[in-house]
Amino acid sequence: MYFFINLTGHALITFALVMVLIRRLRINQDRRNRRGILYLLPVVLTVLILFQAISFTIPRLLDTTDVIRGLYESKTGTVEKIDFLNNAMTLDGERYFYNPMVHKPQVGDRLAITYTDYSGYISNMDKI
User: Domain residue spans in the chain?
Assistant: First the structure.
């Protein structure tokens, strides 16, 4: 369930950025900018949209069918780093996302995980 909530959140962020981009493009087209530098805002928004979509939204969309079917990859490794939001970790040099309400890994733990192929979302995590 957390996977789909996370997917919805990232899709909404991407959608909101696209809507802001469309609004700013209309303002540019009508030449209603009050400051000249704001003409470049659509370029910045486009970069943000691409980063958000490529890093988060598209990989989660690609993993949706695997999550529904229950098809996951498996791996064992040692936790090297936990992100400050406590929803991602680095395991043997690769970044994986997990539900912080269910999983509580610590740096140095040896884990066996099952994860999605594209987004690296962990469905199951066991201490070895």
Answer: 2-69, 73-127
**Right CATH for 73-127 from 3.90.45.10, 2.60.120.10, 2.40.50.320, 3.40.47.10:** 2.40.50.320
Residue 124 backbone class (left: φ over 0; alpha: ψ -120 to 50; beta: rest): beta
At 82, list the tokens: 């936990």
Which strands, in side-by-side order, build the sheet including 88-91? 94-97, 88-91, 73-82, 110-115, 122-127
Helices (H) then strands (E): counts for the chain? 3, 5
pLDDT digits (tens, 9 = 90+) for 50-68: 999 999 999 999 999 999 9
Q: Could you tell me whether strands 122-127 and 88-91 are parallel, antiparallel, or unpaired per DSSP bridges?
A: unpaired
pLDDT in tens, 86-114: 889 999 889 999 998 888 899 999 999 99
Asked whether the beta carbons of 82 and 105 are under 8 A apart, the reply is yes
Q: What does pTM read for this prediction?
A: 0.81
